[in-house]
Design brief:
Elements: E1 2-7, H1 11-24, E2 28-31, E3 43-45, E4 51-53, E5 60-62, H2 65-71, E6 77-79, E7 84-88, E8 91-95, H3 99-106, H4 112-122, H5 132-140, H6 142-157, H7 167-170, E9 187-191, H8 195-202, E10 208-211, H9 216-219, E11 225-230, H10 234-237, E12 247-257, E13 267-269, E14 278-281, H11 282-286, E15 293-301, E16 308-309, H12 313-328, E17 332-334, H13 337-340, H14 346-363, H15 372-376, H16 380-385
Parallel strand pairs: 1-2, 1-11, 2-10, 7-13, 11-17
Antiparallel strand pairs: 3-4, 5-9, 6-9, 7-8, 12-15, 12-16, 13-14, 14-15
Length: about 375
């Protein structure tokens, strides 16, 4: 009998599994459908020996020293400040939009103070800011909205920004200085040995067993456990009883080129042309030295693994019904992006998992400390089969 079954070996599940095992001495079984740990942050070496992110770029950044210090138990870090360019009107310019972006696109020589007036002269007054379109046009006007946001958002989300909640574009600032960093968090790093190695260290505990290529829905009745951490889609857990919550997915095209570099920064966005939204060159992120380089092209799609909850008013209403069910379900904790239908950054998921652990500590009695070997003896053949 396990004290906990943790569904999902991404950030939410792995952080909680480690805390439950190391701090409470609980027996934990972690299951994941995929053949590896790390969730969407999984990285690996390709055939050329280049470290790539299989599910698209994951850039760690946070203002939370608590989150950073917690993860630092399992990894060394490489300082990295992420920079992104966008191809607009056949020109590569920084995003988020800043002073250099505007001066380059329009052949101007504005100062920061002049740029504030320039934005203000083009901004359209919006009395009630509700949508992603409202956020942008009220800040910088419709021309920049069309160049930078509308096409990219329609590719990414499959709907017009006028149909999406304001939170989508509110995440992207507009600057009047020359700061070309994509993020401004005080802590910006990449795991020195990669994300996968960090997860492997996190889950390397005698009280934790990991079963990969394992579908929770097929084994939930087969093995005994007292309590559940669920990090998968909340609508799936409840059998889609209120209908499916829509997610956007991604298709990735990985390429290796026999040249040292391909683009000047880690990510280039394509808001105006092409079916893909962005191209990532991983050597910028990892610092790896190699005569070749590896790229990933991202193609948003409606089908495939769930990546991004679609933030519309209708979907929010449907999620609230599932949220009520989740809150009334005893001995089950719903944690992470899919389980709470929110677009969280990695550090936010870690923070949510640590907060959940504190609530567990305050409400769940300590576990029976029977030897782990007793609980897993009947599973040994299955555990070996999943390695």
């Amino acid at each position: 009998m396990f004290d906990w079954l943790v569904v999902g070996a991404g950030f939410a599940g792995s952080v909680l599994a480690e805390r439950l095992a190391s701090q409470r001495g609980d027996r934990v079984l972690v299951v994941d459908r995929r053949p590896q740990v790390g969730g969407n942050a999984y990285d690996c070496y390709n055939e050329a020996g280049l470290l790539i992110h299989k599910y698209g770029p994951h850039i760690f950044h946070t203002n939370s020293e608590q989150v950073f210090d917690h993860l630092s138990q399992f990894t060394e870090w490489r300082p990295y400040e992420h920079r992104v360019l966008a191809e607009v009107d056949k020109t590569l310019v920084p995003v988020p939009i800043n002073l250099h972006t505007i001066n380059t696109l329009y052949g101007l020589d504005l100062t920061s103070e002049q740029l504030e007036d320039w934005f203000a002269a083009r901004a359209e007054p919006v009395e009630d800011i509700r949508t992603s379109e409202d956020v942008v046009v009220s800040r910088v006007g419709r021309e920049l909205y069309e160049k930078f946001f509308r096409g990219y958002t329609r590719k990414q989300w499959g709907v017009d920004p006028s149909e999406l909640d304001k939170s989508v574009t509110a995440r992207v600032p507009t600057r009047t200085n020359r700061d070309d960093r994509y993020f401004t968090d005080k802590l910006q790093y990449m795991p020195a040995a990669g994300y996968t190695r960090m997860f492997e260290r996190m889950l390397d505990h005698p009280n934790i067993q990991v079963m990969l290529k394992t579908d929770y829905s097929q084994m939930r009745e087969e093995f005994g456990y007292k309590r559940l951490i669920f990090t998968g889609p909340v609508d799936e857990y409840f059998g889609y009883c209120y209908g499916r919550l829509p997610y956007r997915s991604l298709r990735f095209e990985h390429k290796t080129l026999e040249q040292e570099w391909h683009q000047p920064v880690g990510v280039v966005n394509f808001p105006m042309e092409h079916d893909y939204t962005r191209v990532t060159e991983y050597k910028h992120l990892t610092g790896q030295q190699h005569p070749c380089t590896s790229l990933t092209y991202e193609y948003p799609t409606a089908e495939g693994d769930p990546y991004y909850p679609v933030p519309t008013a209708e979907n929010a209403d449907r999620y609230r019904k599932y949220e009520a069910l989740a809150r009334s379900t005893e001995d089950v904790w719903f944690v992470g992006r899919l389980a709470t239908y929110r677009y969280y950054n990695m550090d936010q998921v870690v923070g949510q998992a640590l907060a959940t652990f504190r609530r567990i500590e305050a409400s769940v009695p300590g576990a029976n400390r029977a030897p782990l070997e007793t609980a897993v003896s009947k599973m040994s053949g299955i555990l070996q089969a999943t390695q």
